[in-house]
Amino acid sequence: MTLELGKVVQQIDEMGRVLAERAGRERKALPAARELLRLFAHRQEELCQVAGSEPGQRLRCAAPGDEPLDAAFPAPPLDGPVTLVATDGSQIYPDRHGLAFYYVINVGSILFRHGSGQAPAVATAPRLFYRDEQVYPGGEPVTGDLVGVQRNLAEMRTLADLALSEPGDGPPRLGLTDGPLLIWLQRAALPEGWQERILADYLGCLDRLRAGRVPVAGFVSRPYSAEVVALLYLAQLEPEGRQALTTLAETDYRGLTDRALFGSLAPGERSALFVRGTAANQDFRSRGHEIWFFYLNTGADLARVEVPEWVARQPDALNLVQAAIYDQCRFNNGYPYVLTRADEQAVILGEEREALEGMLVRAIARHGLPLPELSRKAQQKQRARWRRRR
Amino acid sequence: MGIGDWEMEIEVGRVVRSNTTRFAVGCQVLRPQVPAFGALVKVAVLEDEVYGLIHDVRMEDDPFVRQMAATDGLPPEYIEDQRRNRQVPIEVGVLVVGYRHGGQVHHRLPPQPPLSLDVIHTCAAGELVAFTERFDYFRLVLDNRDLPADELLAAHLRDAAQARGAAAGRDFLLDAGRELARLLAADLPRLDAILRRIRP
């Protein structure tokens, strides 16, 4: 009937206690982890071996780049004009209890000319998916996972199109997406052949950006990954200990994140570069887009910024990424302004969805079909919940 | 309004809601002098044209704008984005003061209010002069005690005087003052306040 708050009082109190305990454990583990960071700061070769070893891959350890691990690089100045392009997407998931089995992907974009004094150009690109091969790929109903990765692809495609539509001899260009560049394609969750196809298209966009000399970065707000922590923990173990370790959850470092590890960065500073340890990076590596990352103090948050190797190895491009993202964050509460605006463009509100479905009902009726209706389950839910929605 | 604008009818925006006595207009940007407090504006409603005075110009806000307002050293691109691209329009309040039907101007409430998204224009000098040849609409303004009605009427009368040129404008204000004295004979402090605001 409702969430009876009286019944959760005790659980809430217990939850508070557990959270405090966890924070205390992390506080205890953190100085040791930071000490390891200092200790291994110049032992890149050794760490690369650890990361590449079987236990290293099992724990998804990051691999170090060429910089000292505990280095901190201040934000370079953002001199002169820069053209920033950002995209973000949202979706209406397919719902078999809805009026029809369809889904929508809406990509919002912004082209922001830093230093121009001009209003940026904003746009949306909504697309409906309703054909048999779209909603029943491989004969099975489309899943939320497939819609999600198609959305990732649509965001990257729009980003590449928009950034490359700007002249190459103008101000430097930079593409920014919300979330990891290393998109997660779970083969098992996708119909046969789709994983390969989407990955190829996505990497094709990165190919075009590289060829057009447009650096691209993914901004991950409040990341919880622990790939560097895992690397350090594994590296300090004796070889036998490494073999025996299956997860960080069994250790004192349980719950400790990279974000905490690099929490001493000053505003604008970035950490050293690392290579993402996730297995999926293998696919990106094979096409020359191995995903690297650094941590950045945005002024109000510690974010992870992902870039392809060709950006990480190009100092001008890397400096542009750091300087432009930090500059964007300065005026937007520690989060890039262009990403806030791209999201604002993309988001589909409840009333907009209702208006869309109203149009859909009329279109169906115009074509001589009986009026579509929600499933009995959805209708009854709506009726029963009516009083609580008012 | 600058003299140069008097000959032009400038689009103010579109109606977002209306009733018989007032309507609200949404517009995206402030241009020089448009929309201006006290300006006479008009909107076509079927066969008629409804006249009104702009009594309020208001900027809508949201938490995002409020946060930006408190941010130091905001570069112009951010300000332009908020002003031009985000849907936080300027809302203009209009008080209905009459209508025109079959070429004849009436200083009373129109039979029908404007519809959503109808376009509002400012009135050029000739039309402002024509509308203010009689003063029967004063009551429609003065009766609105929830508005700055006295300021509104004074601003409008100064506009109407200016549209007539110096000498004719002075005579116009004297005539308007006499009409106000008749209407507000029972409220001398109020009369005094308005007369001070329109004194040539």
Structure description:
The complex is a heterodimer of chains A (390) and B (200). With 390 residues, chain A is an alpha+beta fold. Helices cover 45% and strands 16% of the residues of chain A. Chain A has 15 helices and nine strands. A nine-stranded mixed β-sheet of chain A has the order 1-7-8-9-6-5-2-3-4, with helices on both faces. In chain A, a hairpin with a 6-residue loop joins strand 3 and strand 4. In chain A, helix 2 (44-52) packs across helix 7. In chain A, 37% of the residues are buried. With 200 residues, chain B is α+β, with helices and mostly antiparallel strands. Helices cover 37% and strands 26% of the residues of chain B. Chain B has seven helices and seven strands; from the N terminus they run ββββααβββααααα. Chain B has helices at residues 63-69, 76-85, 125-131, 138-142, 149-164, 166-183, 188-198; strands spanning 11-18, 22-27, 40-45, 48-59, 90-101, 104-106, 119-122. In chain B, helix 5 runs antiparallel to helix 6 and helix 5 (149-164) packs parallel to helix 7. The longest helix of chain B is centred in the last third of the chain and has 18 residues, at 166-183. The A-B interface holds A 112-120, 122, 331, 333, 337, 340-341, 344 and B 64, 67-68, 71, 73-78, 80-81, 83-86.
Q: Regions of chain A with pLDDT < 50 over 5+ consecutive residues? A: none
Class per helix and strand makeup of chain A: alpha+beta
Radius of gyration of chain B: 18 Å
Overall strand count of chain B: 7
Give the DSSP E fraction of chain A (strand runs of 2 or more residues): 15-25%
Q: Note the overall shape of chain A.
A: globular
Biggest sheet of chain B: strands side by side, in what order? 1-2-5-4-3-7
Radius of gyration of chain A: 24 Å
Q: SS-based structural class of chain B?
A: alpha+beta
List the total number of helices of chain B. Answer: 7
Largest protein interface, residues of each chain:
A-B, 16 and 16 residues
String of helices and strands of chain A = HHHEEEEHHEHEHHHEHEEHHHHH
Mean pLDDT of chain A: 93
Strand segment count of chain A: 9
Annotation field: number of helices of chain A: 15
Query: What order do the helices and strands of chain B follow?
Result: EEEEHHEEEHHHHH
Termini Cα gap of chain A: 15 Å
